[in-house]
Amino acid sequence: MTIEKNTVVSLKYQMYDEKNQLIDETQDEPMVYLHGGYDGIFPKVEEVLHGKNIGDNIDVQLSVDDAFGEVDAELLRIENEKTFPVQPEVGMMFEADDPETGEMIIFRVTDIAEGKVIIDGNHPLAGMKIRFVATVTDIRPASAEEIAHGHVHGAHGHHH
User: d(Cα 15, Cα 136) in Å, to the nearest integer?
Assistant: First the structure.
């Protein structure tokens, strides 16, 4: 089977930074996504995967815009340490509503000094060029339900 619109694709992958340092990879289970513009994978990677078969390999260079985007300075904030319900620690993550859009943003604590806490709502890999290397491990037709929902469902179905 060939990767085409409305196929479910399984990949083993590695992602590298500009210095070719490994920053992420599949562990035990492959990454699985619905192919065909459903935003389950980077669009440029999806474009390169189109027409590939099981066992094929890809190696794609992603610009900052093709990967996780630029760092948004508005998502970097300095808060008073006393505003946190628990003692903040570097690496701690929490959710907050964006006052402009009402969307939930996940913030990471990146620094604490002199009673001030720096939080960052950007993706941890924002601002980075990425090299995405992958091997196609499986391809199957998507179910009608997966296509209707725009994402892959697990082996035992999916509940919304």
Answer: 15
